[in-house]
Amino acid sequence: MMPLLILLGVIVVLVLWFVGAYNGLVNARNQVKNAWAQIDVQLKRRHDLIPNLVETAKGYVAHERGTLEAVTQARAAAMQAQGAGQAAQAEGLLGSALSKFFAVAEAYPDLKANTNFLAIQEELSSTENKIGFARQFYNDSVMVYNTKVQSIPTNIVAGVGHFEKAEFFELQDATQREVPQVKF
Amino acid sequence: MWELIQSNRRKSALLIVIMALVLAGLGLSIGWSIAGEGGGFFGVAVAMIIWIVMLLVNLAAGENILLAAAGGREIAHADAPQLFNVVEEMKIAAGLTAMPKVYIIDSPAPNAFAVGLKADRAAVAVTSGLLARLTRDELQGVVAHELGHIKNRDTMFMTLAGVTMGAVILIADLYVNGLRFGGGRSRDSNERGGGQGAAIMMVIALVLAILAPILAQLLYFACSRRREYLADASSAQFTRYPAGLASALVKISGAQAGKLEVSRALAPMFIVNPLAAASESSSIFSTHPPTTDRIRVLRALTGDVSLAAYEAAFQQTHNGAGVLRAASMQGVTPIEARAAAPSAAVPEPPVLPGAPAMAAPALPAAAQQWRAAQHLVQLSAGYTTIACACGVNLKVPQHYGLPFVECPKCHQQHPLPPDGGQP
Hints:
The structure holds 2 protein chains of 2 kinds. Chain A is mainly alpha-helical. Chain A has 6 helices and no strands. Chain A has one domain (28-177): de novo design (two linked rop proteins) (Up-down Bundle). Chain B has 2 domains: 2-259, no CATH class; 365-415, no CATH class. In chain B, helix 2 (81-94) packs across helix 4 (136-151), helix 4 (136-151) packs across helix 6 and helix 5 runs antiparallel to helix 6. Chain B has 10 helices and 8 strands. The A-B interface holds A 31, 34-35, 38, 42, 115, 118-119, 121-123, 125-126, 129-130, 133-134, 136-137, 140-141, 143-144, 147, 178-184 and B 2, 81-82, 85-86, 88-90, 92-95, 97, 238, 240, 331, 333, 335, 338-339, 341-347, 349.
């Protein structure tokens, strides 16, 4: 009788552990998904802000049509990008087009005094930050999740439940890691 | 990070249980000393009912009460875009599921705090003095520290511990005052009830009534200090930029713009203790570690800004003593710090019309004390205080006579209350 009870106890403990480990993996994977959604939200927000910026700046920077058009084109390309790899590249280009424009805007005191422009600039640089922080949180979440998937003994549960490793989100261009320099 | 929160949570639960036991012991001994053995259980029941009622009141409107007590008002994105954006950025970096509410407190004293029993119903409050002084990077460091408190469940714990401490103090006060003014009754029941036993219990009750509030406060404050370091470490991790918080702390502790009028129980929730001047010394009653010490640890963080690196920096500046739980941080990969953000400091539009945007010039401590004493005398003499928009406080005597008073600095006319300035 006694050995049977011990065996039963061991099985119960094992099942409980399995359930706990499985739920832990599900939580970690959901966090990764949520973090990815956050990045998406902020990228969309950046796309939405740009027409406003172009509209406000148009009248002031008549001689710099090219830089503004580059921003508009980069936005269009980023919105049409398919897949994570292409999107990362297009977003990188959009980021550098924006920072180029803000560098040019430096030479236009009238534009810099426009409160509407200042507000949009705060929104854009904040969105830039949010993209950065969302990426940071996404990568942290991926790291936690991947560690769980790979390490003993949770990797057994991961194998049974088909938990695949998640990919890190890295921007293509190394210079893009830094927030674009917006100077005043 | 998660393991650290879990270990924190276990410890917090233990601490709340100890405080609850102190409360129950107080109830038991008081009840026993008044009405014998049966009264002991009655006393425990009364103590627990008081505790539960206080807890329920706090649950129903906890953050609102606290925010109202500190004089905060909620803002939306349009009111202070930069502050709102910074909070949103840090919400994303901390991975909070819900955006905390954002409050501004009209006070020249630079400070900030977070409240909320649950992470998805939290709120962050900053003073207008803080907004006026800090750059975007510094503000980000401070907000990240506050969101660190929310993420680490410190706000929840502090509310629970604060309520328990409040209940202990309330019951002890009631008992001691009861003894002082109605001592005869307890002697009466002494003869009727348990005799010797009740007399011993009365001594125990007295000792407990005196010691329990002190004990409860010690537990509360000790825990609060450790949490400040953890929130600093979280801030460095969220912003990847410990220098921001460090220079914010320098500015905050250097500013002598007066104190925020808040209750003692609220003090642990602020980024720096609103009731004490910045000092190097740390007593067991301090709610916060000395600010200079926190700055030193943050400045020792170079390159890696993970929690493990913060622990290492702390040990380096404290001769090997640790502050976070090292065991819970194994296998954490280093996190690289980032460069200073571009100084795209968009001037914040005046947030609240009429609020003093800049603080009054700092006064030496002695002058401040003299001012406070003078203020008390004037208050008791029936003076009316009118705060002018330019930051000057006008003190008008009771029998001034005229219906208007002019500000000597900006010459604005202020109407006087018709009752002639009754306090």
